Amino acid sequence: MIGLAEQILVVEKLWKMTNEICGMLIFVPATQTIIGVFIDDNKKDSFNMMLRQYCREKNIKEFCTITEAWMIMGKKDIPLKVMPRDDPNRKEILLICLVSKQGNQSAFAEISTKDGKRILGGWMYNAEAEIKTRYDSCLQYD
Fold first, then answer.
1. Mean pLDDT, 10 residues at a time, over the chain (142 residues)?
2. 18 in a domain, yes or no?
3. Residue 131 domain-assigned (yes or no)
4. Angstrom distance (rounded) from CA 51 to CA 57
């Protein structure tokens, strides 16, 4: 299994070069494939179905997603009233999710702006905050 700490180091190097992650990057270690995805919200579910099919065809057992995202703090088991992108109290984050048949891991860092420069905050791991994404089910194809 790929390590979350290793992926964070890679993402931090990418961040230092550009101060952004445009769209979404998906890294599939078994095939050494990086997929760059630039999609709007309406196409994310379609992409999810294509990714699931790709994982099934290639017998992929794990992959990593790296994306900028909006996050809001909610309470477990209470549905959101609005999507994070529409909430005025949203926070911008950089999110890393390792999706594996052995179980998922995730981490995020808040993105803030100071003197016009985007700054990446400290990392919070899924032990501290439970994070669910639309890609969690992509390896559930057996």
1. 67 73 70 68 75 84 84 79 87 86 84 90 73 71 63
2. yes
3. no
4. 10
Residue type, 96: I
SS (H, E, C) 10-77: HHHHHHHHHCCCCCEEEEEHHHCEEEEECCCHHHHHHHHHHHHHHHHHHCCCEEEEEEEEEECCCCCC
Instruction: Write out the two tokens for 26.
Output: 């998906």
What do you get for the CA distance between the two ends of the chain, in Å? 19
Tokens 């964070």, residue located: 8
CA atoms of 90 and 72, how far apart (whole Å): 5
- For residue 50, the number of C-alpha atoms closer than 13 Å in the C-beta half-sphere is 9
As for how many domains the chain has, the answer is 1
